Amino acid sequence: MRKLLTTLCVFICIAARSQTLYFPPLVGNTWDTVAPSSLGWCTERIDSLYNYLEQQNSKAFIVLKDGKIALEKYFGSFTQDSLWYWASAGKTITSYLIGKAQEQGYLSIQDTSSKYLGAGWTGCTRPQEDSITIRHQLTMSTGLNDGVPDNHCTLPSCLQYLAPVASRWAYHNAPYTLLEKVITQATGQGINVYTQSALKTRTGITGLWATVGYDNVYYSKPRSMARFGLFIQNKCIWNNDTLLHDSVYIHDMLNTSQQLNYAYGYLWWLNGKGSYMVPTSQVIIPGSYAPAAPADMFAAIGKNGQIVSIAPSKGLVVVRMGDADEGEVPFLLCDNIWQRLNYVMCNSAPRNTYTFIGTGNWNNTLNWSNGLVPPAVLPAGDQIVIYPLLNGECVLNVNQTISTGAGLFVVADKKLKVTGNLVVQ
Fold this sequence. Notes:
Blueprint: E1 11-13, H1 46-55, E2 58-65, E3 68-74, E4 84-85, H2 91-103, H3 114-117, H4 126-130, H5 134-139, H6 173-177, H7 179-187, H8 191-200, E5 208-212, E6 215-220, H9 222-233, E7 237-238, E8 241-242, H10 247-253, E9 269-270, E10 275-276, E11 285-286, E12 298-302, E13 306-311, E14 316-322, H11 331-344, E15 353-356, E16 360-361, E17 377-378, E18 383-386, E19 393-396, E20 399-402, E21 407-410, E22 415-418, E23 421-424
Parallel strand pairs: 15-18, 16-19, 17-20, 18-21, 19-22, 20-23
Antiparallel strand pairs: 1-21, 2-3, 2-14, 4-6, 5-6, 7-8, 9-12, 10-11, 12-13, 13-14
């Protein structure tokens, strides 16, 4: 079908097909599998994926296809029943728990954090402190200084004012960590008790929170991490049991939460948003943090490569536990896993991303990152990102076709003007 789009701001993404998901029993180790060969995957390539994962000091790797286990591999002495830490991937459990507590009437994310943490929980003035809400903690936009010597420190002396709330995005662990106290004060329950009733009992997830230094860290078996991914993939419904009915909260949790870092929801990392930011930096980076992954992928990502990566359009949940030395939020590892998984799925051609960063005409090579202009017919798997710097404008002055399975993304508040033809198949 031909579509001529002449709006200034456009967002186009090829819609995902729906799937019927399988859910394992709540108790026991029974979990249906699906043979990779039955999915049309190139099974002779699986060992190359496992070899890469082993080189990256992986402990466990699971791929669910529509809920069933397509791939499952453990490395060294690690087994299906071994426990491992989630690191910052556990932030996404907290995100869900906040939504559940709000639905139960214990709190509102618009509440000031001081309501639950008490006056003086920061080193700010009282007006500065009272401007911080639970939502700011969820979105990493508290305005507190993440450049202190230890940004995990939750003492008031470590929580200093830097900027007005919602004016600055920064990956700051301490304000996030204090969400545990928000939950426990609001509900009157310990964090493990509340997690048990709000999540674990009705999903079969096991594990527990433990205090490590200033941090609250979740530990579980690998399949519990996979259960959580499947639960979130199905919009907080386990089988036919809806644990969180608040569809608005779920939508906001898994979509851009502020106009600073488009790739961040409520503690979830979002792919395919046109740009992203990284911890300790204020630089906005054009493109996707995992270009090899589907544009609709979102992920829980923690230090040393604890990953729950969910791609609804593909019906996939990808889980990796291990000890890779790639920093606090290892985007490169996440992307490399997707590159190799694509190869296993017989899609060996890498995804190409074309990013418009200049101003003016589409067919001017100087306007494109690395001088790479997209082909007139963009093939499936490739994507175009419109990200004119400063107040620039992208003018599509030629014919451009977006094939089924390809994507065109215009970063929020950026301009695309169509004077030629834009065809979306």
